[in-house]
Amino acid sequence: MNAILRYHRKFQDWVNNFIAFALAVLLAVILLQTFTRYVIFYSLPWSEELSRYLYVLLILLGINIGVSNDGFVRIDLIDYFISDGAKRTLGAVRDCISLFVSGVFLYSTLGMIRVGAFQKSPAMQIRMRYVYMVLFAGFALCVLAALLKLLGRLAAPAPDSASGGGKD
């Protein structure tokens, strides 16, 4: 299990680097669009569409990182006052909810991919199937991250119940 988690961590580091690259491309496209619109007085028809697709990619990869790093919103006050065993149970419940929600979204992208085979994007004229495959890949990464988080939490040794409250 530790080897799988180590490989997943290396993959997440690669995803972080890819996010940085995609963000740089997004900023360059928006800067180019702004420059051509206000200096050359010509609007690039594909720039808005490409920036939208890059933005969706950034969000999906960011959700994956958020699942892996426990980066979602929660009430820390609850975690502070409950016991270590209850923290572990609550963490497992959170992981199950993340896994379920990501699984529902993953499943819903399958129909979108089928429909996208018959559509093209308006400006770039690429098949929407490829755009929807990005959604599928992003939610598949979320499912994988949530599953590994849950398995890692369940495989960890149980906390010592003699330690008392949640103060670490």
Summarize the structure in words:
By secondary structure, this protein is mainly alpha-helical. The protein contains five helices and no strands. It has helices at 2-40, 47-68, 76-81, 84-116, 128-155. The two termini are 26 Å apart. Residues 162-168 have low confidence and may be disordered.
Short description:
By secondary structure, the protein is mostly helical. It is 76% helix and 0% strand.
Write the layout of secondary structure elements.
Blueprint: H1 2-40, H2 47-68, H3 76-81, H4 84-116, H5 128-155
Give the number of DSSP strands: 0
Structural class: mainly alpha
**Computed CA radius of gyration, to the nearest angstrom:** 21 Å
Helix content: over 70%
Characterize the main sheet: none
**Ends: how far apart?**
26 Å
* Element-by-element helix/strand order: HHHHH
List keywords for this structure.
single chain, mainly alpha, elongated, disordered C terminus, 168 residues
